[in-house]
């Protein structure tokens, strides 16, 4: 059984036991969260899709922790103009583990 959920402006295909790094959620480490924006649920041959969301479907998850991704380096340069710009960015994330899918 798997589901497609939407969180943080992105879509994820999840199964029970999966660990994901999603956009930052306001929840403490170790707490249970409920993801209710479910787009699709599939159980073998039975597939249920929403228009755009399924009303009855829910996905339960546990927050493992918070962290920051690796640094992405940005380098901009204009040739022959003596212009160089160095910049870096580290995106925050919340790591979750899927504990249950209910349709």
From TrEMBL:
The keyword Magnesium does not apply. InterPro entries: bL21-like, bL21-like_sf, Ribosomal_bL21, Ribosomal_bL21_CS. This protein binds to 23S rRNA in the presence of protein L20. Belongs to the bacterial ribosomal protein bL21 family. GO terms for molecular function: rRNA binding; structural constituent of ribosome. It holds the Pfam family Ribosomal_L21p. Keywords: Ribonucleoprotein, Ribosomal protein, RNA-binding, rRNA-binding. GO terms for biological process: translation. Part of the 50S ribosomal subunit. Contacts protein L20. This is Large ribosomal subunit protein bL21. One of its GO terms (cellular component) is ribonucleoprotein complex. Transmembrane segments: none annotated.
